Amino acid sequence: TAVVLINGLMKGGWSSALLFAISVTVGLAPEMLPLIMASTFAKGAVSMSRHKVIVRTLGAIQTFGEMDVLCTDKTGTLTEDKIVLERYMNLQGKEDMRILRHAFLNSYFQTGLKNLIDLAIINRANEHELNSIAGNYSRVDEIPFDFSRRRMSVVLTDQSGKRQLITKGAVEEIIAISSFVEMQGRVVPMNEENRRTALEVYEKHNAGGLRMIAVAQKNKVPGSDAFSVADERDMVLIGFIGFLDPPKESAGAAITALKEHGVRTVVLTGDSEGVAVKVCGKVGVKTSPILTGSDVERMEDASLLDAVESCDLFAKLSPSQKERVVKTFQTAGHTVGYMGDGINDAPALHQADVGISVDSAVDIAKETADIILLEKDLMVLEEGIIEGRRIFGNIMKYIKMAVSGNFGNMISVIIASIFLPFLPMLPVQILTQNLLCDFSQMGMPFDKVDNEYITKPRKWETQSIKSFMAYMGPLSSVFDILCFVVLWWAIGANTVELSPIFQSGWFVFGTVSQVLVIHIIRTAKTPFLQSRSSVPLLISTVMVAVISIVVGFSRLAVGIDMLSLPLSFAPWLALILVGYFLFSQVIKKFYIKRYGEWL
């Protein structure tokens, strides 16, 4: 509006003023942003696929780079995901084949999804040829596993019609529903001494790194065919089974690498404290303080908000508690990734800023995730994080270049409209310049990013863009005005008749300076010397600079209503461009010193 009014009132010709204003508006619009973003994301997705990372949501690549907290399940991520049944023992801690037999019947006859624990039990039972006993039983009913009870039960009947309810699950939950224990072949009431004895056996093996599960049974089973959670009472605790899932050799190195890139690893597991501490201690995750699901449940939101800043290990969490922890990290201002592959991980995957799962995960986890890993390995994440930051960096290069350049051009156009007796550039010249500058930016998605830039998470900050615009915009306008002064007094293009020469001069300077500023803005270092752009970006910018100079200094200028520039303008052009480059570097150093960053 201002451009229309100024040119219309001062020069007349309202139609040409309107056309000029429309052209300026088109030139100021960052119309390449959608293409730059789409190209950058597409290139990133292809690059990440080479590293066995499949991107389901393109926008997640950028969030990947912003991530500063990675919440992850323990099993399969920090461990080998090869669960082996190591021990089956009675309440005295002695090996007892009867415990394995009951665990096998429970796992074999459940109809739900058999997890790694069930498969480990069945495999060990097969080694002892216990699978043959399954033919002696038939299933009456089952009480499926859920994450609040943390146990599952089956009701079986043998060939004589005798019924038996067998339950396995988390030790504390099984003990809570057991009224009896089996000690040395006799069933006796559960008392404090028996409870203590059982817990000592459990805690000893749990502290040694075994994932312990309790097994209970009872023979007094109702004659009905339908059973519920209410029937899981007055059980007889008979023993424990212990599993080993050793830490991955690469886990420690991966966590260290993530830390070096500014990503904190937090473990959210449903396992007990003992196993979680043992594994996490071996891979370098801080194990103190530790919060359990019951701790999280008791905490108010404000207390949990304080706790998450110092706690890297959460154990015995339910799915809803995992989701709450992730949400609390987000409330604290973190960009959170969550990595998991089970049904119990789905709420946290959905809540996280970027959900990460694996190709072997259950369907609901894969459907919820933004990113799928073809290998369940934290090392794979490192390259994804780096690629995400490269993408974010290249997008920020364009945005900061566009907003600062456009802000400077707007100032220049308003000043030129006030003081010049003619239009500083015609609409066809503005659109041609805009087309050339757009072409010069086509190599930006393929550009390199300085190593220093990818060492820490980067987040979108509107204030940073405003500050950048306030510094670089007026600087470009100062050199535009300096170009005006040279064209007006040194070259003598100061009449309406000679306006095509003036327009040609600003066309060339404006195009080359916009090309030059790409290399200035793309790095916090000195361009060309300390940091070089990618070959595609270098080629596209050099081509556009050469084309604009050839057009401005040749008869080709008449094709867009300009006149060819006299050669006397060439040294002035070079001098102004060198000055722009040098002053830009000075402003860059000052800006970095004040704000601590460039992009």
Tell me what the structure shows.
- The chain has helices spanning 2-11, 14-28, 33-50, 59-66, 97-109, 116-127, 171-176, 192-207, 249-260, 273-283, 293-298, 301-307, 319-331, 346-351, 363-368, 378-419, 427-440, 462-490, 499-521, 535-552, 569-595, and strands at residues 53-55, 69-72, 84-89, 137-146, 151-158, 163-169, 178-183, 186-189, 211-218, 235-244, 264-268, 290-292, 313-315, 336-339, 354-358, 371-373.
- The radius of gyration is 35 Å and the shape is elongated.
- The chain folds into 3 domains: 67-75 and 249-372, Rossmann fold (3-Layer(aba) Sandwich), CATH 3.40.50; 84-244, Calcium-transporting ATPase, cytoplasmic domain N, CATH 3.40.1110; 394-595, Calcium-transporting ATPase, transmembrane domain (Up-down Bundle), CATH 1.20.1110.10.
- It is built from 21 helices and 16 strands.
- Strand 5 and strand 6 (163-169) form a beta hairpin.
- 47% of the residues are buried.
- The longest helix has 42 residues, at 378-419.
- The strands form 2 sheets. An 8-stranded mixed sheet has the order 1-16-15-14-2-11-13-12, sandwiched between helices.
- It has 599 residues and is of the alpha/beta class.
The CATH class of the largest domain turns out to be Mainly Alpha
Number of DSSP helical runs: 21
Give the structural class.
alpha/beta
Count of distinct structural domains: 3
Terminal CA distance: 32 Å
Low-confidence stretches: none
Query: Strand-residue fraction?
Result: 5-15%
**Helicity, in percent?**
40-55%
Gyration radius (Cα, Å) is 35 Å
How much is the average pLDDT? 87
* Outline: elongated
